[in-house]
Design goal:
By secondary structure, the protein is α/β, with parallel strands linked by helices. The chain folds into two domains: 12-131 and 297-309, Aspartate/ornithine carbamoyltransferase (Rossmann fold), CATH 3.40.50.1370; 135-295, Aspartate/ornithine carbamoyltransferase (Rossmann fold), CATH 3.40.50. Helix content is 41%, strand content 14%. It has helices at 17-32, 56-67, 88-95, 109-117, 133-147, 164-176, 192-205, 215-219, 239-246, 254-257, 280-283, 291-309; strands at 45-50, 71-76, 101-105, 123-125, 154-158, 179-183, 209-212, 224-227, 265-268. A five-stranded parallel β-sheet has the order 7-6-5-8-9. Helix 7 links the parallel strand 6 and strand 7. It is globular, with a radius of gyration of 19 Å. The two termini are 16 Å apart. The structure holds phosphoric acid mono(formamide)ester and norvaline (NVA). Residues 54-57, 127, 135, 269-271 line the site of phosphoric acid mono(formamide)ester.
């Protein structure tokens, strides 16, 4: 029996392959039969603390909590006393008295660690500078749904290797046996500690992890091509430098996807900057683009996560 009750979800590194597969299997059940979970959150309160903008995460989490019978309370940090200097620890101590769980989207991953240290309730990472675990769960669910397997699938991530999405994918893929190649300019490589963790996971699962410079090499024989924006939230000051480093080589266009397997799928966490990291023809390709299913799967997987942790 896999029991994940009362756990924090700050990074997928804290979860075993068996636990991650359990989340994916439960997501599959809930997608087939949305009412199957019942109302495990009846009478429960979940605070959604957001320091950064969001469309998918905010709405999928609110809908997930509501569908599970609970109540979601949205709190923007700029409208809370955090803005005026109330400490993270004091905020956690107080919210702990009102709510049963917290999901937070913040600039700094250490914010989440600090909050979790002072909270007795589950704390869920709704995106930090380092990780985006809920996204990676939905991503791997989408790969599994489209490809019918995870082990041996090759995922090529093209673009900002230091992005939260890339980091969480490195962890999730290496745990679940998906081969992952990241193609990025050297200054925008994944963090050393993330690569190290992914290599250790990959050694155990028998998968491969690689970081290369050439996007064409990365997408050779790829089953999945994944990209994210070149300028993540919080990196706006580096916009010019980043665009100069990524463009035009790392843009996912028709020429690049042509190198992948014929039945490749294209994935993007969204929002996309059309024409920048990906061209319309790839994003809107009805045969290969999985982005809308991927976005939908944020809801099913969020329901799985809430019903398993709470
Ligand atoms: N993919 C994702 O997290 O989207 P939002 O920023 O809209 O939540
Ligand atoms: N890497 C992106 C993901 C957005 C969902 C960002 O942090 O802005």
């Amino acid at each position: 029996m896999v029991n994940m009750k009362n756990r924090d979800l700050l990074t997928l590194q804290d979860f075993s392959a068996e636990e991650l597969l359990h989340i994916l299997e439960w997501s599959k059940e809930l997608k087939k039969n949305p009412g199957k979970a019942g109302r495990p959150l009846e009478g429960r309160q979940v605070a959604l603390i957001f320091e950064k903008p969001s469309t998918r995460t905010r709405v999928s989490l609110e809908v997930a909590v509501n569908q599970l019978g609970g109540n979601a309370i949205y709190l923007s940090t700029s409208e809370s006393q955090l803005k005026r200097g109330e400490t993270i620890a004091d905020t956690a101590r107080v919210l702990d008295r009102y709510v049963d769980a917290v999901a937070a989207r913040v600039s700094s991953h250490t914010w989440l660690e600090e909050y979790a240290l002072h909270s007795r309730k589950p704390v869920i990472n709704a995106l930090s500078d380092l990780y985006h675990p809920l996204q990676a769960i939905a991503d791997l669910f989408t790969v599994w749904e489209r490809k019918g397997r995870l082990r041996g699938v090759k995922l090529a991530y093209v673009g900002d290797g230091g992005a939260n999405t890339c980091h969480s994918l490195l962890i999730a893929c290496s745990k679940l046996g998906v081969d992952m190649v990241v193609a990025c300019p050297e200054p925008f490589s994944p963090r050393r500690e993330v690569i190290k963790a992914a290599l250790t996971n990959a050694y155990r699962s028998g998968s491969k992890v690689e970081v290369v410079k050439d996007p064409r090499k990365a997408v050779e024989e790829a089953d999945v091509i994944y990209t994210d924006v070149f300028v993540s939230m919080g990196k706006e000051a580096e916009a010019e430098e980043r665009k100069a480093a990524f463009l035009p080589n790392y843009r996912v266009d028709e020429k690049l996807v042509h190198i992948a397997k014929e039945d490749y799928i294209f994935m993007h966490c969204l929002p996309a900057h059309r024409g920048e990291e990906v061209v319309d023809e790839v994003l809107d390709d009805p045969e290969h683009s999985a982005v809308w299913d991927q976005a939908e799967n944020r809801l099913h997987t969020a329901k799985a996560v809430f019903s398993l942790l709470l």
